[in-house]
Amino acid sequence: MNFVKSKPIYVEVPIKTDIDTLWNATQNPDLHEQWDLRFSSITYIPKLENEVQEFLYKTKIGFGLEIAGWGKSVGSYHAENGSRVSSLHFGTDQKISIIHEGRGYWKYEPNNKSIHFLTEYNYDVNFGRIGSFFDHIIFRPLIGWATALSFDVLKRWLEKGESPRSQYIRFFSSWLITILFFFIWLYHGLIPKIIFTHPDEIYMLQNFISLNMHQAHMITILIGIVEILFGLTLLIYRHKRKLFTLQMFAFPFLATSALIANTDYLAHPFTPLTFNLALFVLSILGFIFNKDIPSAKSCKRKR
Asked: Which residues cross the membrane (predicted)?
């Protein structure tokens, strides 16, 4: 599959800064590697005047593995209207890389008090049809998302002064907490309430509200469905701080309700008191970390 036949990746974002500052943040390798999620390190190779600027890059992919590749800044153009273009040729000889070779460009377009910073690039893939299928289904959407997220991190860095490192710490911390809560709501809604309908779940409900066995059984299943739906909403809803606020009220209520239903739970190894207290604190952290985090959705993804 040749890269000229596949759909190119396009990302655009307006940044309120001057063009020289933006140019330096994107063309200086020490600055570039700070905000671009696609690269772990970028090293320029010394060159003579008028020679093509070559560089080496590395990308850590986890489990101690990394992709090392090469790149060439094949040309740049400064127009009379102040816009600039930087073209790039890149690739790697490592067989484990899905990317074999590609080309693209960065464009800087002044617009009043901001610069429209955009990129478009495409690449050829390894592994034949299997590689093309994997690229189309998983890798291309992932690297497109990483490009857009990186552009928003760059935008926030230059506009608000928050370092890329602190932005990424908040971003990944917030998603780690979100995924944890998604699993907790999914598990507690599905396993003890719907699939097995554990007797303790029914017992707590009957002790808290006067219900017969059938009513308690049906309401327990209904609560399980609500918990699963809440977990899914937490995963996909953009304004997560509202849901974390709701959790900060819900967990003390759940702990109190369980202990009112049966004070013997205070002696259990995993008592509802400490369990819900931990989730309450995590909800506070989730609320804090989710304040104004970078997002790939802030960028334009099509021409």
From this structure: 175-196, 216-236, 243-261, 273-293
Domain span holding position 193: 170-289
pTM of the model: 0.89
Evaluated on CA atoms 255, 256, 261, 262, the torsion sign reads positive
Q: How far apart are CA 88 and CA 56, in angstroms?
A: 13
For the chain, the first-to-last Cα distance in angstroms comes to 23
For residue 100, which of 92, 108, 109 has the smallest C-alpha distance? 92
What's the angle, vertex CA 235, arms to CA 232 and CA 237, rounded to 5? 95
139 & 215 share domain:
no
Same domain, 155 and 181: no
| Inter-residue contact 207 to 200 (CB < 8 Å) | no
| 67: CATH | 3.30.530.20
